[in-house]
Amino acid sequence: MTDLLPPTESTNAAPYSVSELAGALKRTLETTYDHVRVRAEISKVTRHSSGHVYLTLKDDRAAIDGVIWKGNVSRLKAQPEMGLEVIVTGKITTFPASSKYQIVIELLEAAGMGALLAQLERLKGKLNAEGLFDPARKKPLPFAPKTIGVITSPTGAVIRDILHRIRDRWPCRVIVWPVVVQGDAAPGQVIRAIKGFESGEAPKPDVLIIARGGGSVEDLWPFNDEALARAVAACPIPIISAVGHETDTTLIDFVSDRRAPTPTGAAEMATPVLSELKGFVLDLERRRVGTFGRHMESRRERVAMLSRALPKPQDLINSAQQRLDYIAHRLDGGLLKNLNLHETGFVRVAGRFNPALLARPQALKRDQVTQLSTRALAALTRRVALAESHARLPALAQRMDDAVQRQLTQRSDRLSSLEQLRQSLNPDRPLNLGFARVHRKDGALVASAAAIITNDVLELHFKDGIVDVIATTDAPPQTPQPKPAPKKVTQPPSSDQGSLF
Length: 501
What we know:
Layout: H1 18-32, E1 36-47, E2 53-58, E3 63-68, H2 70-73, E4 85-95, E5 100-110, H3 113-129, E6 147-152, H4 157-169, E7 173-178, H5 186-199, E8 207-212, H6 217-220, H7 226-234, E9 239-243, H8 251-255, E10 258-259, H9 263-270, H10 274-308, H11 313-350, H12 355-424, E11 437-440, E12 457-462, E13 465-470
Parallel strand pairs: 3-5, 6-7, 6-8, 8-9, 9-10
Antiparallel strand pairs: 1-2, 1-4, 2-3, 4-5, 11-12, 12-13
Helix pairs in contact: 4-9, 5-7
């Protein structure tokens, strides 16, 4: 151990650096207080995103910072909450970066039953505020379940009582998922069983029973776990809570769909009584037979009463027989009279018929046939003529195309001739041959030398530009001599000249 006596003026001890001093203090504290238990109240809790939990422990005169590393948080018997009185176990160490000491907590447990109950009340208030205790969200139990799931310890009287009660009341399939029901591992195993039934890992039951026998508050404390309560509330299968005796209350009793006072009571809630159902069905059958018999007797009496008001069948037959005899007696005379009337009418109508009456319609029909034949022949002639016209259409179309093509050729030739004439009459065409055109400054064309006066400013227009010149000749102007008329040229015009036709 490093000696921490401060150096005096009479010693020659070397001075510490800050890091050396902090390290020496850290080793001293961790060696001296490597295992301490502290009873205190939690005043502040901070859960970091890394998973570590930072808190402050205090009493009425002092406070100390504490830290729970991520690996130990899930193994704590009680989760740290503000205001909870706890007993923590750990070691004292320092945080050199800020010259502070703290306790690294390895174990944390509530300090007494009052602290546990206070923590439970806070958790109940939190879940109630979230609506997990609302009766409206609780699911109804099935009337006649085919399969019942039981989550409990495989040993003990609880499972035997449940199985015996179900077998007496409603023999059905029972699936038992064995779990421990006491200790730190109990909440996780019960949650695992609920998830297993939900996911189909085991055959999905119609109703679930979570059961445990009686015990102390500490024995039943695993069923006050927040994660277990949330798993029960979120389960889609109806759940009956049967933890402890009637006076025992745990957190899952509030979030489950039904609470049973005992495990046997849970079996009774989940199942109807088969013998009672059989008796009820037999009573309904007896009532049905009695009601049907009374109904038939009532109908029979009503039919008998109505039959007394009806006439006798023989009276109805005699009256009908008399009417039949009377009609049969009149039938012979009526038939003879009817025959005479029809014979008289036939003779009267037959006198109007003769051969000429039949020949007239035949003549009318013959005339109609002749007219229709004439019209049909004319229509056939027109149809033949139309077919011949259609046959001539391709030849006429070809002739029309040839005529249009000739017209286009003639117009194209005439257009080429006019273009040649336009080129021959273009005043700028001689400039391409080396000639120049003389203009005055005002743009007037100078056609002869006699029109030029000394010092006139002239413009010579060439192919590639205009040049200004001044007339300087002193010779008197000469009268221009007429040029001899050119001889007629009988040769055809060159390709540079146009034609009017």
